[in-house]
Amino acid sequence: MGLERFILALLLMLALPVSATEHFDPFSAAGIDTTRIGESVAMQAQFTDQQGRTVRIGELLNGRPTLLIPLYFRCPNVCGAALSTLFSQLAHQPYRVGRDFQVIAFSFDPREDVSAAREELDKLTQRWPTLATDPGLHLLTASAEASQALAQSLGFGYRFDAQQQQYAHSSAVAVLTGDGRLSRWLYGLGYQDDDLRLALTEAGQGKLGTLTEQLLLLCYHYDPQSRTYNSRIMLWLQIAGVATTLGMGLFIGLALRRDRRRQA
Predict the structure, then answer these.
(1) Exposure on the CB side of residue 165, measured as CA atoms within 13 A
(2) What does the DSSP assignment read for the chain?
(3) 126-168 residue pLDDT tens
(4) Which tens digit of pLDDT belongs to each residue from 200-242?
C-alpha cells in the first residue's frame, strides 16, 4: 500500500498545472535586446493618445528624433520616477519638445485606456505645465497586440506577474531617428543632461544641433558598459602621454648611445 500511495502522489504532482509550479523570473522577462539598434520600429502600430485620438507611431514621428518610453501609467514602482527624471532633464535642454524632437510614452498594459493617460498628464502638468501641454508630447494606450508589436520591434521585454499583479520590465528611454530607427537606449534613472543631449544630436543625423553639438560627438563615444556617453579626450590625452614618454625615452636613449660612441 505504501508503494501505491507514493505512485498516486507522484501522478497527482505531475498532473498539476504548469502555472502552479512555474517560477516567475523577472530578470529573464525584463531584458532589452540591444541587437535591435539600427532597426526600424513598428511604424504602423495603432494607439490612442491622451486626447482620445487614434494615431500611428509613424505619423507622430513627423521626421523628427523621438524619445520613446515604454511603461504603464499606473505602475506602482519606477515608471513615474522614469518620467519625472526625463522631464527634469528636458527642462534644461537647448532642444525643445515639438520643435526639435518628440516625446512618446506608451503603455504596454492593455487594461489602461485614455483615462490612465490623462491621469498621468495631470500629474506632469502640476510640475512641468509648459512641457506637459506641448503638442510634441504623446501619452499612448493600445491593445495588447499593438503594444507588443511596438515593444518587440524595440527589443523591449516585459511580462505580467499574476501573483504580484504587476509588470516586470526595465526602465529605459529609446531614442529614435526621424525615420523611425532605434538609435540608442538611455538606461535607468542615472543618465545626465549631456547623455540626453548627445543622444538627440546623434539621432538627428546632422539635422539637430549646432556645429558645436556636432563636434562634441567627435569627442564623445557611447560606452555600452557604463551606458553613458564618455569623453574621448581623456583617452586621447592618455595615449598622447604614453606616446610622449616613449618618444622622450627613445630620444634620450639615442642621445646617450651617440655620446658613448663619440667617447669610444
Answers:
(1) 3
(2) -HHHHHHHHHHHHHTS-HHHHPPP-HHHHS-B-GGGTTSB--TT-EEE-TTS-EEEHHHHHTTS-EEEEEE-TT-SSSHHHHHHHHHHHHTT-SS-BTTTBEEEEEE--TT--HHHHHHHHHHHHHH-HHHHT-TTEEEEB--HHHHHHHHHHHTB-EEEETTTTEEEE--EEEEE-TTSBEEEEEETT---HHHHHHHHHHHHTTSSS-HHHHHHHHHEEEETTTTEEEESHHHHHHHHHHHHHHHHHHHHHHHHHHHHHHH-
(3) 999 999 999 999 999 999 999 999 999 999 999 998 888 889 8
(4) 988 886 544 444 444 444 444 445 555 554 544 444 445 555 6
Residue 92 has pLDDT above 90, yes or no: no
Q: Which CATH number fits domain 27-206: 3.30.1380.20, 3.40.30.10, 3.40.50.720, 3.40.250.10?
A: 3.40.30.10
Identity of the residue numbered 48: T
